[in-house]
Amino acid sequence: MISTEQVEALADRLHAAEANRQDTPSLADDHEFGIEEAYAIQAALIARREVRGERAVGVKLGFTSKAKMAQMGVSDVIVGRLTDAMRIADGADVDLSRFIHPKIEPEIAYRLSRDVDVDDPTTDIESCVDALAPALEIIDSRYRDFRFTYTDVVADNTSASAYAVGPWRPLEDVSNRAVKLRVGNTEVVGSTAAVLGNPVRALHALLDMCRRRRIPLRAGQVVLAGAATAAATLTAGFAECRVAGIGSVSVKGR
Ligand code: OOG
Fold first, then answer.
1. Which ligand 1 atom is at minimum distance from the Cα of 226?
2. Ligand 1 atom 4: the closest Cα is on which residue?
3. Residues in contact with 165: Cβ distance below 8 Å, sequence separation at least 6, in sequence order
4. I need a labelling partner for 5 at 20 to 30 A (CA). Which of 127, 133, 217, 243 fits?
5. What is the pLDDT of residue 67?
6. What's the half-sphere exposure (Cβ side, CA atoms, 13 Å) at 3?
7. pLDDT(39) > 90
8. Count of structural domains, the chain
9. CATH code of the domain covering residue 152
10. Binding site membership of 163 for ligand 1 (Cβ less than 6 Å)
């Protein structure tokens, strides 16, 4: 158990790591805290971003695929928050010096068409989305060597750092589409089925977590359903996520 003061102090530590692009050891090395407190640290981190003038624009899921679970040794779905400062336009340059050790992941994004009443047990989350798109997420753990525990990564806003969304399109079944992540000369191939069997299931997992963690979901927000493959190191040059039948989205590392 940690005190409210410690929650704030640990949020300061993660916030400074991000601001100074200087990694920090796992919080779990010298603090014992549970998942509730981890989400409290995450909320305190987001509050610091809001004080800086940033605005919540969506949420992201993590560890919705076995490849990611195996890569990071964590086996429970997690949720983090996206702000407007994390948004990169499709095709835009991304300055790599703003990160510590960025990695990139191919994803499916959903768009919320209305506010979601997370407290209503009859809420039909699928009826609250109106579009989907290919997406790229840049993760940049604030922890040294991406070494963290389940509670650490939740506290660190699930490594959220930046994201880009391709052209939105009407909803359709995307349960088994080939996914190609290209970063420079490296190519990683996977399937949307890696995301909980069907990315739409990520929406259901999200609703459940937002209910428990008091995270609001608002019209217009973006939901990143989680990586369909293991993450790749983000290097200078072209990076692209292409999903069969859905299209592509890219960024350019500089
Ligand atoms: C945590 C974030 C994982 C995903 O899509 O599974 C994630 C990390 O690996 O640093 O975003």
1. 5
2. 62
3. 90, 109, 133, 134, 135, 222, 249
4. 217
5. 87
6. 3
7. yes
8. 1
9. 3.90.850.10
10. no
